[in-house]
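FORM 7B: Structural annotation worksheet

SECTION A. Query
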Amino acid sequence: MKLRWIFLLPVLFIPFLLKKPSNNRNWEFGFGSLSTTELINDHEVLIKNIHDTNKYFDETYDTNDLERVWFVMEPFAKLKIVAHTYFVFDFKDKEPIALSIEARREKGEEFDFLKGLTRQFDLYYSWGTERDATGRRAVKQNEPLYMYPLKLSHERASNLFITLANETNRLAKTPRFYNILTSNCTNELAKVVKKANPKAIPWYSTMVPPGYADNYLYDWGYIDTTVSKKELHEKYYITDIVKENYDEGFEKIVRETLLKE
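SECTION B. Predicted structure
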């Protein structure tokens, strides 16, 4: 009986192996519209279908006006190793824009660890407002959030934004599967970082566990090293700030709080 099950195991995995990534499924709310980009010149990018709560819009961004990049981390309480991470970009005279790489869910589908290992979710580049990406997680979902200003030169920050825009289009044309180990929110960001700036982070960075990403950025000198790792979470915790100032426009207050000397 046991030998029979051993031979049957490969058969059970055939449906997963035959499934192909696709951008055409019955998507859950919030995953329906795929962002695409258009490179206007070497420093201007048009991003289409930017998500803002219940609507989408298009906007052009000039990397000459890029002022800062933030790394946001949402740890999951039950398991330290697991977290969600994303970037937020600050531009002069524009609202911040966030880029989150996620598992794209179909209608009625919930995220599941096993499904995340077995080609059940497609990869999704979600461009959105900070109110949508950060406000939703802090206020509606009551998640702990930590927001770190990255220490990047303007050239590296610009290369990162342009490369993310190009990868967004690449994914729109050639869909791929999400994988909780090899193609998750954090190591997909790390792959883009290495593509934009090959010497920016070590070769093993694409396999850094999401829940420890801020520790690694600290070790590599990309976030505030004037405080200890323990003090990092205290200094850059933003959930309460976002909640208290959500209606007044939390974006400016978060930055005034985190960047003050």
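SECTION C. Observations
Strands lie at 36-39, 44-52, 55-62, 66-75, 83-91, 97-104, 122-129, 146-149. The two ends are 68 Å apart (CA to CA).

SECTION D. Sign-off
Analyst initials: ____
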